[in-house]
Amino acid sequence: MEILDEYVRIAGIASPNILVQEFSGVQAQAVAIARAVHFKRDVLLLDEPTSAPSARETEKARNIMRELADAGVSCVFVTHSLYHAFRVCGRFSILANGQNVRDCLKSETSLNELTDIIMTH
User: Fold this and answer.
1) Considering Cα of 53, then 57, then 58, then 61, what sign does the dihedral take?
2) Are 4 and 30 in contact (CB under 8 A)?
3) What's the whole-model pTM score?
């Protein structure tokens, strides 16, 4: 609970006795992130963390990913929202049919270029 309250800061998680299945998607991901922080993991896989129904929860998820990166935790952000990824990520790997078609730093590309690559594969 200390990590959830001080680091992850997602509302609605009042007790460690609440079953994760009762949480929203962002709350459940917050628990997973808190566990990764607690166990000092170097890499965290986030599958569609910004697919939350509200813009507020989506922004919270993006903020958590930025804070994790600042703390030295690598986040693998699997998403269909290139816009959300571009706002958070520093490196991109675009896959098509199981093949890596582009791997680059954010400073080496643009949202339009990545969109073009996705649209042509």
Assistant:
1) negative
2) yes
3) 0.69
